[in-house]
Amino acid sequence: MSQFNNAWFRDPNEDILYINETAVRIRAGMMILIPLFMAYTLFDVLYTSEWIVDASTIEDTYETNDASQIIYSGEMVQRAYDFTAQTIVLFYALFELLVSMTAKTSRFSPTIQLATYLARNKTPEWKPIAPKRFAWGLGISLVTFCLIFFNPDTFANWLNTLFSAAILPTTYNYIPQEIPITLAWICLGMIWFEAVIGFCLGCKIHSLLVWAGWIEEPCYACNNIDWEAIQAKNATE
C-alpha cells in the first residue's frame, strides 16, 4: 500500500492532492487502447460492412427511373453488429475514470496499480489532481456519449419510460455517425498527447477556465513554497 501511495500520490492525506505525472502518463499509454478499439469499431462498421446481393432473387420490375435506367428488385443483406464487447469496454473505461477521482477509490483501478508499479523507480513529477480530475470528467462525458451511441435503443427506452413520453426514437440511431467518429479521434488524440509528450488538453482547458474566473482554484505554486526555509534564510541575513 505504501508503494501505491509513494508512486501515485505524494501524500493521500494532504488537503490538496498531488499525483505523480510520470505514473499518469504511463497509465494514459495503457488507456489509449480503448479509443483505438472504438475507432477501429467505427471504421469497421462504416467502411467494411458491404451490401451482399442474392443474385437468384433479382427480378426485372419493368420500370425505369428518370435516367432511363431499368429498375430491378432483389434481396440485399448487410452484416449485423453486436456491440456487447464495446459496451463492456466502455463501462470499464467509465469505471477507471470514476475511481480516479478520489484517493480512497484510486486503489481499485488496475491501470493505476500497474502504472504506479512501473513508475516506482522513476523520478516523480508532482502535479495537483484538480486539473486531472477536470480532464477525466471530460473523458467521462465522451465515454457516456459513446455508450449511448452503441446502445441507442436501450437509452431511448429508459428515457421514454422515465418521462412517460416518446422523447427519442427506438427504431433507429438518432445520433449522427459523424459525431462519435469525431469524438473518438479527439479522445485518441488527447490520450496520445498525454502519454507521449505530456500535454494534457483537459488540464489546459481547466487552466483557461480558472483564468477566466469560471472555476475557483487555490494557487498550487504557493502551496509548494517552503515558508519555514524562507524565514530561516531571512533570519540569517
Terminal Cα span: 44 Å
Which strands sit side by side, in order, in the main sheet? 1-4
Largest sheet: 2 strands, antiparallel
What are the low-pLDDT stretches, counting only 5+ consecutive residues below 50?
none
Query: Could you tell me the radius of gyration in angstroms?
Result: 26 Å
Mean pLDDT: 86
Instruction: Output the structural class.
Output: alpha+beta
Number of domains: 1
For the secondary structure, the number of strands is: 4
Strand content range? 5-15%
Number of helical regions: 12
Give the topology string: H per helix, E per strand: HEHHEEHHHEHHHHHH
The shape, in one word, is elongated
Range of helix content: 55-70%
How would you characterize the overall build of this protein?
- The structure is a single chain.
- With 237 residues, the chain is an alpha+beta fold.
- The protein has one domain (2-47, 79-229).
- Helices cover 59% and strands 12% of the residues.
- It has twelve helices and four strands.
- It has a two-stranded antiparallel sheet with strand order 1-4.
Quick overview of this protein structure:
With 237 residues, this protein is α+β, with helices and mostly antiparallel strands. The protein has helices spanning 2-8, 21-31, 33-47, 84-99, 103-106, 110-118, 129-150, 152-163, 178-196, 201-211, 220-223, 227-236; strands at 18-20, 51-64, 70-78, 126-128.
For this entry, give a set of tags:
237 residues; 12 helices; two-stranded antiparallel ribbon
